[in-house]
Amino acid sequence: MGESVISVEGLVKHFGSVVAVDGVDFEVPSGTVLGLLGPNGAGKTTIVRILTTILRPDAGRATVLGLDVVRDPEAVRRSIGLAGQYAAVDENLTGRENLRMVGQLSHQHRSVIPARADELLERFGLTNAANRPVRTYSGGMRRRLDLAAALVHRPPVLFLDEPTTGLDPSGRSDLWAIIEQLVGDGTTVLLTTQYLEEADRLADNIIVIDDGKIIAEGAAAQLKAGLGNTIVDVEMLDGADARAAVARLGQLGPATVLDDGRTVAVRVSEGGRSILEVVRSLDAAGLAPESLAIREPTLDDVFLQLTGHKVADSGPEPSTADAVEPAGYKRGAA
Amino acid sequence: MTAATAPAPVALAYPHRSKAAWAVADALAVAKRNVIAMTRTPQVLVFSTVQPIIFVMMFRYVFGGSIHVAGVRYVDYLMAGIFVQTVAFGSTNTGVGLAEDLQKGLIERFRSLAMARSAVLAGRTLADALRNLFVIVLMIAVGFGVGFHLHTNVVELIAAVAMLLLFGFAMSWVMATIGLLTKNSEAAQAASFPLLALLVFASNAFVSTKAMPAPLRAYANHQPVSAAVSAVRALVLGGPTTSDVLTSIAWCAGIIAVFAPLAVARYRQAA
Lengths: 334, 271
Description:
The complex is a heterodimer of chains A (334) and B (271). Chain A has helices at residues 44-51, 73-79, 95-105, 113-123, 139-151, 169-184, 196-202, 220-227, 239-249, 271-284, 299-307; strands spanning 4-15, 18-29, 33-37, 59-64, 67-68, 80-83, 157-161, 188-193, 205-210, 213-219, 230-235, 255-257, 263-268, 291-295. Chain A is an alpha/beta fold. Chain A folds into 2 domains: 4-221, P-loop containing nucleotide triphosphate hydrolases (Rossmann fold, 3-Layer(aba) Sandwich); 230-295, Alpha-Beta Plaits. In chain A, β1 and β2 (18-29) form a beta hairpin. Residues 313-334 of chain A have low confidence and may be disordered.
């Protein structure tokens, strides 16, 4: 592990009476990817805004490449790139115009800007669309352009705030490939996400955050190992059957009844073999499932395991593509 | 083709310029972006000129016959009011544009760049001044089309245009503050209208204030739109100009002195 590129100590931020960030500490070693994993309103975006000098913290200290984000914001801005969940590109400009504008506004030499813009358009598969206004772009194209805009000045540190929220699966996997390539180039990345799968694929280390506090941290593999690789959802006829099933299936792995009161989620290590054991175990107890499904663990499962409660803001299933994070920090009742 | 162990990227060196030179360069870059956006959405420009043209037609041909202003043809009297009305209502674009940039996250991006803090507001108001120039020239042409006569000379007409640009610039800072407060383009639009109605319709833009009830007349005679209209009217119709022009310049300076710092403060806290 190299030296720390991002260093955060005791960071606190309030919005009125709401504590958005409540004493967060972490380090991001050079050339690594840190994933901040948490639901809407957990405080992820606020942390990114503080680190990118957009917001000032109420307490604590944060440095990027040794530069204090409060005392030396201009130097920090020269070294960072930010790509956000809202795809902050100008709809009326073309892709090329957007990148050139960002080049100018990040104070690059005029002589290098056009070539740099073209290079990024090429790399992100936008050359054919380079002269079209961005309002004609698809969601995935906008995100790619937004990421390209964050890279115009070759920042050694990159902040990605929910880079794939709202993208369809193919747009998401395109963007993942691009981010992996950047990391291969040695860029240090801080990524926020609501998707366990995304953090697992891209991040070296993961911090799980809830209500502005860190509730778990570790290497992606560690975190997932504690969780089991696969979840078998066993839907029973009713609550009584579900409780009986939990008693039986608890022998195979941690089992809980989900929200609907009759589906049992069992965390197991191997999907294919485990489902056989699930069926045998249920059969032996004279229980018949209504349906059986195998799935990857989601943020909801991580939360259920770590906190014993569900993600408060239970929107659409995190693995569906249409989740859109509203502004603000409102939390629904648990 | 790409080596597995490429060196870590290093931020590109940036050319040395003074802070002030960068502030100007950044404002121009943002203004250029806003001007390009205007040319790409001509419908916005078209609709923002349709409204004043309708007013010209209405007051010239519908109401104009019944409105008599002593000593001057009504169409000549009217046009100064129309010019001021056009830039006053046009300034809404500043607030709406900023609110839209906030909503779309563009301001967040700008704030994460090494650019001057002043550039977004300066660039926006500059681009809006350019748009105003275009619309003013268009409205002068419309005025000539409906029978408006310039009673002075080209130099005073240019001075009138400069007066209108200054007034539009001042109003842009008011609308910028509103846009950054509402953070929503529809809300910015809605919040601007009552303010503009109060300024533009309760003024000497379309009728003489002499027939108004006393309290209304007192207000109408002492507010920035009336001051701008009087100055522009003097510059296109002739007569003594110095006092009216100075009064209007004072109003504009006062508005800028109050609202520019307010807008900048809101901008620093926004996003």
